[in-house]
Amino acid sequence: xxxxxxxxxxLVGLLASCGSTVVVGTTDPVRNLKLSAYQSQYTLPADYxxxxxxxxxxxxxxxxxxxxxxRLSVDLTWDxxxxxxxxxxxxxxxxxxxxxxxxxxxxxxxxxxxxxxxVVGPNTAPLSVESKRLSSxxxxxxxxxxxxxxxxxxxxxxxxxxxGTKSNMVQSVQALPVADCTL
Length: 183
Hints:
By secondary structure, this protein is mainly β. About 10% of the residues lie in helices and about 45% in strands. It has one helix spanning about 1-15; strands at about 30-40, 40-45, 50, 55, 60-65, 70-80, 80, 85-90, 95-100, 110, 115-120, 140-145, 145-160, 170, 175-180.
C-alpha cells in the first residue's frame, strides 16, 4: 500500500508540473455497517434472571464488571471504507450514554468481520468508558466467580469515512448485564 501511495504522490508531482489538476484521495463512503458479534472479557458463571426486567441471561453470557476494567470486543463488517469507529454505551435503565472513538484507521475496507476492542473502566458502566480509543485486538474470556447485577447497557456502534460520511447505527441484540464481580 505504501508503494501505491508513493507512486501516486510521484504522479501528482509530475502532473502538477504539467499544469493539470488531479483528484487524489477519493473516498468510497461507508455504508451497510453490520454487527456480527460482541464479547466481553467476563461471562456469567450461572444462569441469572434480572429481577428488574424478568430477562434471563444464560451461563456464559457476556457481562461488564463494574468494579473491574472490562474489555469488550465487537466484530463488524461494512461496505466502502471507514476511517473511525464510535462505540456508545447506553444504560438500559437510565438512558445515560458515553461514547468512545477510535483513532484514525486510514480508510479500512472490510472483506470479512473485523474485530475492534475497547475498555470500560471500573465504577463507570453503563455511564462511561475509560479508554478514549478502540483497538483491533483479541480478548481472553474469563468466567467470574460471584456477581451482583446492578443494571444493563446496550452497545451502539457507528462508523465514519474520511470524507465525513457516517454509517447506519447498529446495536447489540440485548443489553449486557453490569455487575460487581469477583474473580
